[in-house]
């Protein structure tokens, strides 16, 4: 019985988790492998798909259609990642093909040209048949006949040809001149004798060329090693001593060279953590750890020394960070320790850079991978350790399909590879800390700062009282201003944070109360100073700043609230000599801008770093002795069960930037809710107390982690269509649920209209519902037959219920 290929097709309107059956053309029979992409006829079209398996029988009655072409010479997903895709589809209620696409490097989605390169393994006949002109050839299945494709696949599998990828955009392979010589050592020696005395530089170059390896060496390296100028090298080229050929180089996504570092001497707490982790590494145990270490306790050093042990064991390591663009210091520290072995993956890289890094991982040249969320899918082999820094960060959860959490994927891969997973944070997520309490993770505590430096002293400033007392500026309290001035006098540095979450500066008419809103979304437009424009932060809509109220024609329409630019202007007026660096989405839009600003601050080219939440994490600047939080509680009012947790985490993290070196740190938190427990406990930096308090609140409110949660959302341009769909879905869900489950809604979402669409939601909280999964699978399938324009989303363990 002939083999039949099972293919997941990529047809957005006809998605299913069941593969379709296709006949395999005879020539491809032995060459096709799971994980390869193919094109297949589907209806009247030809579509692409991924082979996920083989079978010998099929339910399908008629004549099977055949696979048209294979797109890959080797599987783009290895067996591990194929299994992972299935698991991801199961647990996130996404389609398998969506999961696979999420996992593939962007490179494979971009237009790439593949070239097949002959190697010396080829027999003369093979060479004659497949490479008649001796050169590499393009692999373009639309131009090659099936026999040739099958033949090439076979050669590839036998390792007789290699494949290179060429990204079609301008960021293709980068080259530098490389030097080779076709002269024999003796010829070079003769030449050297003849020039020795009159041209010592040329002689030096000839000496170097005698020891030149077979492969091309970068010209810069030759020039440096032989101590000659490029003019001497070009002269040698004209004399025929050497040849210059383009040599492929990797783009280095690190602009600055990093100084290598060596392991630090660990303190007792760090040592205990490293011992526990590395025991699991060497014994190849899928054991999971929570490193709960206060800010500045040296968690990074624990990660680095644990990674080093994994590398010694011949294994590789994956280190996840929340957002690479925001954490250049962390990336640099890893690079400083492991140098060329490090690959960095993130969306801020150009296509070409991503391609280079991916290729280095794929070839096994990079054994330490640092990356943000999607790096959790990197095709790393022989994983010996996975680290997730700042594990509480919400950016680890993807907010579109598949709605996965990188932490879950990391734990899955740890199990697959028999390697430990380390979750680290000064403020672990409630879920993680609760799991550690249950014994699912081993808790490793770093309770002290390095060298027993004290945690900063935190002052809470009641802004209600402040505003009553003095008429001045409403952004800065008197004690905070005094403290800033004090730091300026002592030549120390200040970090000021303006919390932008749940907050915006909007236009409001003081006469009629009219608020300028986005015509597409249900939220107010945000006032921007430079350029002066009103902007919607959800859909990007822009319009001119009004001078009269569109509602009552009053001229008293003003902006309300505070933006970083406005605060900068106000602060500069109050402290004319202060050098202020502003860091927000506007000042960091350009590539590398974030790192540049941080470098400036690190070199003390500025006294004050003023920024949004992006300055709260990971910064390690010894000269910062004061941290000010201008508005601690803007997020507390959000209809989000994690509002307190987020506020506590943010305040603790940003406070942790102060006093990390010899000089002690101080923190001022300005708030309108000075008695709120999240703020009070941030004052004492007492995570454990916060955990207990917040767990109690969650227990009372039946929230995660006491309950599991599913959020279902329906959206449509017509509000009634969205609402109706939500009621129908709810009816279906109810049938599968016991009366123990708690259902919230249907309700319009907190921001009910975004990008011209209305959003309705239902939240299900449950403990044990064996039928729920089947019902949700049905909803996912049924969403294919939904009215035009209706989108249904299923989010397991949503980050919020808003
Ligand atoms: N064993 C050690 N001896 C001396 N200095 C150390 C040691 N371990 C770490 N450090 C230094 O202490 C500082 C704080 O360490 P690190 O940034 O790793 O803290 P962290 O726990 O990651 O803090 P945060 O959660 O605030 O980012 C760094 O400057 C680091 O170089
Ligand atoms: Zn008005
Ligand atoms: Zn909008």
Automatic annotation (TrEMBL):
Catalytic activity: Couples ATP hydrolysis with the unwinding of duplex DNA by translocating in the 3'-5' direction; ATP + H2O = ADP + phosphate + H(+)
Domain Helicase ATP-binding: 280-446
CC terms in the record's Gene Ontology section: primosome complex
GO molecular function annotation: 3'-5' DNA helicase activity; ATP binding; ATP hydrolysis activity; DNA binding; zinc ion binding
Cofactor binding note of this UniProt entry: Binds 2 zinc ions per subunit.
Enzyme Commission numbers on file: 5.6.2.4
SUPFAM superfamilies: P-loop containing nucleoside triphosphate hydrolases
Keyword DNA-binding in record: yes
Recorded coiled-coil stretches: none
Alphabetically ordered keywords of this record: ATP-binding, DNA replication, DNA-binding, Helicase, Hydrolase, Isomerase, Metal-binding, Nucleotide-binding, Primosome, Zinc
One Pfam family per UniProt: Zn_ribbon_PriA
Top-level taxon: Bacteria
Cofactor section: Zn(2+)
Annotated Zn(2+) 2 binding sites: 518, 521, 536, 539
Helicase C-terminal domain segment(s): 544-698
Uppermost EC category: isomerase
Binding site for Zn(2+) 1: 509, 512, 549, 552
Functional summary from the UniProt entry: Initiates the restart of stalled replication forks, which reloads the replicative helicase on sites other than the origin of replication. Recognizes and binds to abandoned replication forks and remodels them to uncover a helicase loading site. Promotes assembly of the primosome at these replication forks.
Subunit structure: Component of the replication restart primosome.
Annotated protein name in UniProt: Replication restart protein PriA
């Amino acid at each position: 019985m002939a083999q039949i290929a099972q293919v997941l097709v990529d047809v957005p309107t006809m998605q299913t988790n069941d593969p379709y059956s296709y006949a395999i053309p005879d020539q491809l029979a032995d060459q096709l492998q799971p994980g390869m992409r193919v094109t297949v006829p589907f209806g009247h079209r030809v579509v692409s798909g991924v082979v996920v398996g083989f079978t010998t029988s099929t339910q399908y009655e008629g004549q099977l259609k055949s696979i048209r072409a294979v797109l890959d010479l080797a599987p783009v997903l290895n067996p591990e990642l194929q299994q992972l895709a299935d698991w991801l589809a199961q647990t996130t209620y996404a389609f398998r093909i969506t999961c696979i696409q999420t996992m593939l490097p962007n490179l494979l989605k971009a237009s790439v040209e593949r070239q097949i390169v002959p190697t010396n393994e080829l027999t003369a006949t093979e060479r004659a048949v497949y490479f008649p002109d001796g050169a590499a050839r393009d692999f373009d299945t639309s131009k090659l006949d099936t026999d040739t494709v099958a033949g090439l696949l076979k050669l590839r599998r036998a390792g007789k040809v290699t494949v290179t990828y060429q990204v079609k955009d301008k960021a293709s392979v980068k080259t530098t001149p490389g030097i080779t010589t076709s002269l024999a050592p003796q010829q070079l020696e003769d030449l050297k004798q003849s020039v020795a005395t009159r041209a010592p530089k040329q002689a030096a170059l000839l000496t170097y060329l005698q020891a030149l390896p077979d492969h091309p060496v970068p010209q810069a390296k030759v020039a440096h090693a032989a101590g000659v100028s490029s003019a001497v090298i070009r002269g040698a080229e004209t004399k025929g001593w050497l040849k210059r050929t383009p040599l492929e180089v990797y783009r280095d996504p690190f602009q600055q060279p990093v100084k290598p570092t060596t392991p630090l001497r660990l303190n007792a707490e760090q040592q205990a953590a490293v011992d526990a982790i590395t025991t699991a590494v060497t014994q190849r145990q899928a054991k999971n750890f929570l490193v709960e270490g206060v800010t500045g306790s040296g968690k990074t050093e624990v990660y680095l020394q644990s990674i080093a042990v994994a590398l010694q064991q011949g294994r590789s390591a994956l280190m996840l960070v929340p957002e690479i663009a925001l954490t250049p210091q962390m990336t640099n520290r890893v690079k400083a320790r492991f140098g060329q072995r490090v690959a960095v993956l993130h969306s801020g890289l150009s296509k070409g850079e991503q391609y280079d890094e991916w290729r280095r991982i794929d070839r096994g040249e990079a054994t330490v991978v640092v990356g943000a969320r999607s790096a959790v899918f990197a095709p790393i082999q022989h994983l010996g350790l996975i680290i997730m820094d700042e594990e509480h960060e919400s950016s680890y959860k993807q907010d579109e399909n598949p709605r996965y959490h990188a932490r879950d994927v990391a734990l899955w891969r740890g199990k697959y590879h028999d390697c430990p997973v380390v979750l680290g944070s000064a403020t672990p997520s409630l879920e993680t800390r609760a799991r550690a309490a249950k014994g699912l993770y081993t808790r490793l505590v770093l309770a002290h700062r390095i060298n027993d430096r004290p945690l900063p002293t935190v002052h809470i400033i009641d802004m209600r009282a402040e505003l009553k007392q003095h008429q001045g500026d409403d952004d800065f309290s008197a004690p905070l201003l005094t403290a800033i001035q004090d730091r300026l006098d002592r030549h120390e540095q200040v970090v000021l944070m303006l919390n932008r979450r749940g907050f915006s500066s909007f236009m409001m008419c003081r006469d009629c109360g009219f608020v300028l809103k986005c015509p597409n979304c249900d939220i107010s437009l945000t006032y921007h100073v430079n350029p002066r424009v009103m902007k919607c932060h959800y859909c990007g809509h822009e319009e001119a700043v009004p001078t009269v109220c569109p509602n009552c024609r009053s001229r008293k329409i003003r902006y309300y609230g505070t933006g970083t630019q406005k605060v900068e202007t106000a602060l500069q007026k109050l402290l004319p000599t202060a050098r202020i660096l502003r860091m927000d989405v506007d000042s960091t839009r350009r590539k590398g801008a974030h790192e540049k600003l941080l470098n400036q601050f690190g070199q003390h080219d500025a006294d004050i770093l003023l920024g949004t939440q992006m300055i709260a994490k990971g910064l390690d600047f010894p000269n910062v002795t004061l941290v000010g939080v201008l508005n601690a509680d803007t997020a507390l009012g959000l209809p989000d069960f994690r509002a307190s947790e987020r506020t506590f985490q943010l305040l603790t993290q940003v406070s942790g930037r102060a006093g990390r070196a010899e000089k002690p740190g101080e923190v001022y938190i300005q708030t309108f809710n000075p008695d709120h427990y999240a703020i009070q406990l941030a004052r004492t930096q007492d995570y454990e107390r916060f955990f207990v308090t917040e767990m109690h609140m969650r227990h009372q409110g039946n929230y995660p982690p006491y309950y599991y949660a599913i959020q279902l959302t329906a959206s449509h341009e017509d509000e009634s269509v969205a609402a109706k769909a939500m009621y129908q879905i709810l009816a279906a869900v109810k049938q599968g649920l016991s009366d123990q489950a708690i259902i919230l809604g249907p309700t319009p979402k907190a921001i009910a209209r975004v990008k011209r669409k209305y959003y309705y939601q239902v939240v299900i909280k449950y403990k044990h519902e064996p039928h729920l999964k089947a019902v949700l699978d049905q909803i996912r399938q049924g969403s294919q037959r939904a009215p035009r324009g209706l989108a249904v989303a299923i989010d397991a363990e949503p980050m919020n219920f808003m």
